[in-house]
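Data deposition worksheet. Section B asks for the primary sequence of the deposited chain exactly as it was used as input, without tags or linkers unless they were present during the calculation. Section C holds the resulting structure in token form. Section D is free text for depositor observations; keep each observation to a single sentence. Incomplete worksheets are returned to the depositor.
Section A, Depositor: J.P.
Section B:
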Amino acid sequence: MTTRRAMIVALMIVSVAMGVLSGPPPAPAQGHENYQIGSEDVLDIAVWNHTSLSRTVPVRPDGKISLPLLNDVQAAGLTPMSLRDILIQRFAEFVPTPEVSVIVKEVRSFKVSIIGEIKTPGRYEFKSRTTVLDALAQAGAFTNFASPSRIYVLRPNGSGIQQIPFNYKRVIATRGGNENFFLEPGDIIVVP
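Section C:
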């Protein structure tokens, strides 16, 4: 009886500890629920029962892909499902009721630059959503002249460049808090 009771208590402690350590799942960043295809990504386009139309294609720097019969099709900025719908409409001119699938085979468009007073500045390619803290960890330690409380992210937007402050010391002190935000492709982290 004592062994059984000890086992139950141990299981309860482990389950509580695992819940505390893992915490709640992170909430998705607003507007990032679906992956958007970017330049240099590699896509598998499959047209059911039409192997001659199926291809593995890279997304060119202009954001387009080239497919038989369709020539150039805009892909960058679309979700795989949105591109699939467009391809179904376009292939319908040549194939009765086409069944198309779009699979992102390789993510190559998520690139972030890190410059300034850090051990290994450069351009980094990520395969999934990445926070500022994750990217800084990739670039190594700060130099002796770094000012971690004055880091900022330069984010290109439609009309110019937005500057977003990132206080490394405060983020570390609060264990991430709400200030450790997700990066977007093309962001530049500046470590003064």
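Section D:
The chain has four helices and ten strands.
The domain at 42-106 is CATH 3.30.1950.10 (wza like fold).
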